[in-house]
Amino acid sequence: MRAWSSLLVGGSIGNLFHMKNLYLVRHAEAVRQHASQRDYDRPLHESGKEDARHMVQQLSRCPNPMGLVSSPAIRAKETATIFATALAFPISNMKVDERIYEAEVEDLLSVIGGVDNNVSCLMLVGHNPGLSQLVNDLVHSDIGNMPTCSLAVLHLSSDSWSDIGIAKAELQDFNYPGKAGG
Fold it and tell me: Which of 66, 76, 148, 163 is the 20 to 30 A CA-CA neighbour of 49?
């Protein structure tokens, strides 16, 4: 993995604009589920909101997303909204896709593969275990479990989202609250 600063040295950041950039975000920490509450309806904990505000700063030197798609679960939509607001991404352009909640890798590949190719940088906000498995499958590595509010930045060597899963993917950064430098 290259550090953010290395992307800015020697003009290599220019390469970021000629391939697909994918930001995978696991939702931030949610409140504990109460007996009468559905998992789907859990909002973010205050510490989760703070973590999201901190983690979005990790993207300050990267291209802003041109597309943002979120799970419909409250905690994911709240995380996506915090990221969108900080990145000046119009909330009205945020998409919500039911397939992301409790998604398996194939579901996530289908969501990403259906994105318009005019979008060169996409952010997807979702859940484990699907997100962790997706990153591991795409980069042929094992990042382990994506903690809450973690951010994986991938670059795909393709100009088509439909190539997701077959195009070469490179993990540029993997960060989360509490990690050194995160």
Answer: 66
